[in-house]
Amino acid sequence: MKPRTREALALLPSALLITAGFTAIFLKRSDFVGNTSLIYGGAFLALCLVGHLVIRFTARNADPFLFPLVALVACFGLVELYRIDESFARSQALWFVIGLGLFAATMFALRDYHQLERYRYTIALGAIVLLILPRFPLIGQATNGAYLSIKIGPLSFQAAEFAKIGIVIFLASYLRDTRQVLIHGGRKVLGVSLPPLRHLGPLLAIWGTAMLLLIFIRDLGSSLMFFGAFLALIYVATGKLRFPLIGIGAFAAGAYLVGSKVGHVQDRVAAWRHPFDPILFGAADVTPRPPEYGTSYQLAQSLFAQADGGLFGRGFGQAEIGTTISSGGDVTTPLLPASQTDMIYALITNETGLLGASAIILAYLLFVHRGFRVAILARDPFSKLLATGLTAVFALQVFVIVGGVTKVIPLTGVTLPFVSYGGSSIMANFVLLALLLRVSEDARRPT
Amino acid sequence: MTALPLADLVEPVSVALKFGIVAVLYLFLAWVARSSVADLSRGAVGAVAPGLADAGGLSPTAGGEPRLRVERAVGHQPGDEYDIGPGAVIGRGSQVDIKIDDAYASGKHARLVRQAGVVIVEDLGSTNGTFLNEEPLAGPQPLQLGDRIRIGDTEFTYLDD
């Protein structure tokens, strides 16, 4: 079967799933099955086919499963968003159209992604500026104590989402040049041969940047994502286990120091360690006044929601996400705060159960597998490193948010790629997907 | 016969949908996984040139003898292969291992050295420069299977499979 035929076929299950998902929600809502869900399913399939045609025209030989796997997780996101609030789903669908436009633009404009190497320092500078901007007054904006978004007029966007791609491009290009000197040369210190200081410098600078990010944007998740991608790249570039090991040690030490100094990070860690602590949960003051939640309320509720899902889940549209407290006025208390962004994984688990949640994780795993496969097949070092970096940063993003929601690591506000509500995340991840497909096309094109 | 009230159908339809969704989901994932595993055991996807797929990661891997294949060079047959051995100097002069008659080449133009399992190419201060995959060589660079080394109008491909 030709790769593009496979891709077109692989899009059908997603269209089927989104139709079924919407049907389930309509059933729950109005006890009525109309043809509306078929229209939604058809529209989704049409969007996917547009993406498919773009790939068919620009990257005929590229990996056939990357795009359908994205479509699969995206349809979960759309169904859940519709279920939370129709307006979310409507604007999310709009973001998908814009994201797909950006995807097409990248596919058409960036025929030779090796050009990116020429602008690596510009790209790196741009990424750093994007990361620092949220901290500036007027345009910066703090969300739950972390500085992640920029607000210009009515538009706000998540700078880190775009910065991650820039940083990966820079690192791939930089490490392609220097990886040899990192392996060979330099003095031996305590039996470990260290690279010469001239080359160690930039590596230390990257570690320093990660630490600065931690202090500056106060977000453990993003720093972990960036630094983890860096370690994955340096491991692949040099083939030496000592670099990631030293890196993990350095990051852990730095994170520990910063974590014990910065109040916001401290709160997150405390909430992570004791989510059911009555004071942290905020159970001390319930009914009077507008209810106030503790720092661990979100995480604890997420754990309850996931446990409640059981093996098969409650079914699409059946989760309780809000409850009305009547005493002291009608206040709708969110049972799952931020269920459209941070907590969407918990909501999916509640509605589709362990099976559905595992399927999402499996879909991401397969995406990552295909991504690393692109790296293995790539023909030149820069392509290999670029594909590795993009895949690693994507995988780490999923890990950071799913890990946070399931209480493996402290919870931080990173989006679940292609599922969470938010334009920046969708657009940036579509660009990431386009780059991966470009590398894949280069690697699999018959010579 | 009266038609079943719609409300009575809702429950069974919901349940059917729930399990239908799970079934479609897992069938799809199983298909992707199967294709991926099949790709793995086949080693390479059809579209990939033989040899390249096995190049694996970036780290030096034990492979065949490193050698240069002539792509185009005056006085050499395209397709000829030269073993690099522990190292080789390319140039126009007489004290070299691979002699090329190229007007743009210097006497001792470039050198290949084997170092810790990797072969490194290095320009020996030539006048017109050495190009690795059409990029001018700035410092010593490790070679990957399939890399192209160009000196003036002479071009080699590096092989070690």
From TrEMBL, chain A:
The residue range of the signal peptide is none
Q: Please name the InterPro entries in this protein's record.
A: FtsW/RodA
The membrane-topology field of this record reads: Multi-pass membrane protein
Give the species this sequence originates from.
Answer: Patulibacter medicamentivorans
**Which cell locations does it reside in?**
Membrane
Q: Could you tell me the superkingdom of the organism this chain comes from?
A: Bacteria
Q: Which GO terms describe its cellular component?
A: cell division site; plasma membrane
Biological process terms from the Gene Ontology for this record are: cell division; regulation of cell shape
Molecular function terms, GO-annotated: lipid-linked peptidoglycan transporter activity
TM spans, by residue?
A: 39-58, 65-82, 94-110, 122-143, 155-175, 196-217, 223-238, 245-263, 343-365, 385-406, 418-437
Query: Which keywords annotate this record?
Result: Cell cycle, Cell division, Cell shape, Membrane, Transmembrane, Transmembrane helix
**What Pfam families does UniProt report for this protein, alphabetically?**
FTSW_RODA_SPOVE (PF01098)
Which protein is depicted?
Answer: Cell division protein FtsW
From TrEMBL, chain B:
Q: Does the keyword ATP-binding apply?
A: no
- Which SUPFAM superfamilies does the protein's record reference? SMAD/FHA domain (SSF49879)
Write down the superkingdom of origin.
Bacteria
Q: Which UniProt keywords apply?
A: Membrane, Phosphoprotein, Transmembrane, Transmembrane helix
Bilayer-crossing residues are 15-33
**Which CDD domains does this one have?**
FHA
Report domain FHA positions: 88-137
What is the protein's name according to its record? Answer: FHA domain containing protein
The uppermost taxa in this organism's lineage are:
Bacteria, Bacillati, Actinomycetota, Thermoleophilia, Solirubrobacterales
